[in-house]
Write a structure and sequence with these properties.
single chain; about 220 residues; alpha+beta; six-stranded antiparallel beta sheet; about 40% helix; about 20% strand
Length: about 220
């Protein structure tokens, strides 16, 4: 029997999943409060509630961890979010900087049947428009080996694979320079002074990218 969870509970589980990343460590309540833009006392109350439902484990001073059930719920919500982002961009013509807030609303639709049909309709995409892997129906994700643009080597051909920061301003900057997921580029110069990087694009044009942009763009070797 699937637990009936509120939208807020699902958002908490998703935030814990996102903040814990690849580490096995617990997420602090302060970090969670900052991510969800809420008070630490509200986080403590919600964590207690999720703990009673068996979705998280909380140890004082060690933070919050998802239980297996909690992780399954979080990954299910992430799957819906990323599928809806793909649908909005690929089928409805939204820009990749417009879809996050819409997907935040759509990810709470309950129907598993709808999610599975959406996945099939889109041809079972491996990644969303920002390059984030989409969990399959079993919750498995295909993870690529990603390199941050500011740690690349010169004269190697790379492909943009993921954008770490999905903020509108970054996505609009990349758009303006026709840089999207799967764009190819070669690093031709790196500047120690400000850690900026000059890249050569597929059309032969060159572009200098700031340290901040390079720290938010992941690539793979082509």
């Amino acid at each position: 029997q699937e637990l009936e969870l509120s939208l807020t509970e699902e958002n908490y589980l998703k935030a814990i999943w996102s903040l814990s990343g690849d580490t096995r460590k617990g997420v602090s309540t302060n970090k969670l409060a900052a991510r969800l833009e809420t008070k630490a006392s509200s986080v403590t109350d919600m964590v207690r509630r999720l703990s009673e439902k068996g979705l998280v484990d909380y140890v004082k001073y060690q933070g919050v961890k998802l239980s297996d059930d909690g992780k399954a719920v979080a990954v299910r919500v992430i799957r819906k979010h990323r599928l809806w982002e793909s649908f909005l961009v690929d089928k409805l013509g939204f820009n990749w900087d417009e879809v996050h807030d819409l997907a935040e609303q759509l990810e709470h639709i309950r129907s598993q049947e709808l999610t599975d049909r959406l996945d099939a309709f889109l041809g079972h995409p491996a990644c969303d428009p920002h390059g984030d892997p989409i969990p399959d129906a079993e919750g498995e994700m295909r993870l690529e080996k990603l390199i941050l643009l500011n740690t690349t080597k010169k004269n190697v051909l790379y492909r943009i694979a993921n954008v770490k920061d999905n903020s509108k301003s970054l996505l609009q900057f990349l758009d303006k320079h026709s840089l999207t997921i799967d764009s190819e580029l070669t690093v031709i110069d790196k500047f120690d002074f400000d850690d900026s990087v000059t890249v050569k694009l597929a059309d032969g044009n060159t572009l200098t990218l700031s340290k901040k942009i390079c720290a938010n763009v992941y690539v793979t070797i082509k």
